[in-house]
Input
Amino acid sequence: MMIEEAGEISYQVPRADRIVAGTVTDVQSFYYHTIATIEVDEWLKGPLSAKAITVRTEGGANVRTEDGATFAANETAILMLEDADVGEHKFRMVCGNSGRHPISDRDAILQEISDLPRRSGDSDDEVIRDSPPNPVEFIPPATDHGLDMDGDGIFEYLIVEIDARTSEPGEYYFHGQLYVPLGTHEENGRIGTGFRIIEMAPAAVHLNESVRTVAINFEGGRIRDNELNGPYKVSISVNNETYGFGYTFDCTTDAYDHAQFAQPTLLLSGPVRSKPVAIGLARERAQELGIEVRDVNHTEVLTDRSHEIWALDFVGNGFDERFVIHDEDDIEHWTMNGTMKGIPIKGVPAFTTFASLAAIVGVLIITRMRVQR
Output
């Protein structure tokens, strides 16, 4: 439960990394979290070049948090945001549902922003400064193909490739968004475009003046689970160690049927690529913890920075046991109650206080430690 003043604009504005006014174009509910896609109308604080962002809230289809924010498609609101991954345009809500405001609060919020104490050395330009122009030059056309890693006729990945170069050499991080447009709608005299995000995938490439191919690898299990056929739309955002440059390249794939894809048993990236090896590490960890586990009843491929990791749900003794394999010596364990078995997720929740953890319906016990071998 939040303190009473957490619902006040004066409390939220200084605690928000960014404040945005926008329209909800897509809401995807999972068991214990929800991802809302927001089409940006205006940045009120902490402006970025991003025209669309995603906001994660704790609480989903079967699990609720007491103060968790909820969204409805096509609604317009002002949101108080905390940075989660600015490069991927991912955010969390500040003060839960209280951090969502009607557009009529805009003037009051702007007044509160103008009253914020200025840091020593700040100038007006520094307060509203946006990212510099994108230094990466993409060289069309993009190409795409399915990758069949084991010769069974099913694709484990959809690979999208585009050549790129830059006059500012360095490490660049690309985040591809695979989605399907859902058509246009009119709301309050405005035309909006809906879309459903199927998957987001990262890549890290060192670029210089020479042309290099950037490959975005979309994992096949997510494509199959979403049950949406192509052609798919792809938007690619770029950032480096200093700036996020927003979505800077768009393309459309060839036609695909979702049934052509399946989850891989060998990842293209990550410290533990093999699924059987990951299962073995999880069983070793369960033995060290004194936990009985039986069959694997759900597997998820997650992304951790620029590589992939395994999340495995085992049938346990009355509860499901989840193990997330960050690497051979870093294995995260959760015990989940019966309402949370075999749940597809796009990430792991971050509960930072006992109060927020206690608000979850059911039992969720998290342990994570680096194993000494």
Observations:
- Residues 119-129, 338-366 have pLDDT under 50 and may be disordered.
- The chain has three domains: 4-128, 136-260, 275-370.
